[in-house]
Amino acid sequence: MQPEPAFLLHKRPYRETSALVELLTLHHGRVRAVAQGVQRPGSRSRARLQPFAPLHVTWVGEGELKRLRLMEGHGSAALLAGEGLLCGLYANELLTRVLPVELPVAEVFAFYTAMLEVLPRPEGRAGALRRLELAALEALDAWPRFTDPEGGELDPQGRYVLDPVSRAFVAGEAGIDGRTLRLLARGDWSAPGLAGPAKAVTRAALAPLLGSRPLRSRELMRQLAQRRRAGLRPEL
């Protein structure tokens, strides 16, 4: 096979000198593989196989678990710290959890690549994450339906919550107003004042895909927010 663009989503030790890795690839989506020898001291592959660093990889194997054959760096890693780093870890954890193995998700790969360019700048992080989440939802056929369960239009004066089964919106006093949901339905996800509702919608849509096990990155973000409110220096 030709070398394929990829990013490391997750890595854990395997046997004495190898690692089990989860990769996001351009043409094959999420790929699970054994990276042999990367845990060996002095391994050049170990230095290349880092989160947020563009790679070119090849692999062999017919089953779900592949074996990496070629792994080359293809540029510098995104320089992330603090909240930007946590956003990147969230994206990696999310895609590892929700993407099936080897489902082609070229748009997700494109939005992930664009997100890494934005995460160092605080003002662009929320929008970049929402675009990635929406790309994943679309790839998984889990996009929210901005209608009521019967397909009718939402009342601009009403309030609604997302029903995880039908992916439509049902009346709920603690929900989002219909006017805001109509704006989101038109694609105005980055319009002023819509950051909170956009996050609420994508979180509700992703919840059935993630299941009951919480995301570790969300807990780390919550701890960071608590430290900031307490006036402490955030630490990861």
UniProtKB/TrEMBL annotation:
Q: Name one GO biological process term.
A: double-strand break repair
* Protein name according to UniProt: DNA repair protein RecO
* A Gene Ontology cellular-component term: bacterial nucleoid
Please report which protein family the annotation says this sequence is part of.
Belongs to the RecO family.
The UniProt keyword set, sorted, is: DNA damage, DNA recombination, DNA repair
User: Is DNA repair found in the keyword set?
Assistant: yes
Q: What does this protein do?
A: Involved in DNA repair and RecF pathway recombination.
UniProt KW DNA damage keyword = yes
InterPro entries from the UniProt entry: DNA_rep/recomb_RecO_N, NA-bd_OB-fold, RecO, RecO_C
Q: What species is given as this protein's source? A: Halomonas lysinitropha
Q: Which residues form the DNA replication/recombination mediator RecO N-terminal domain?
A: 4-72
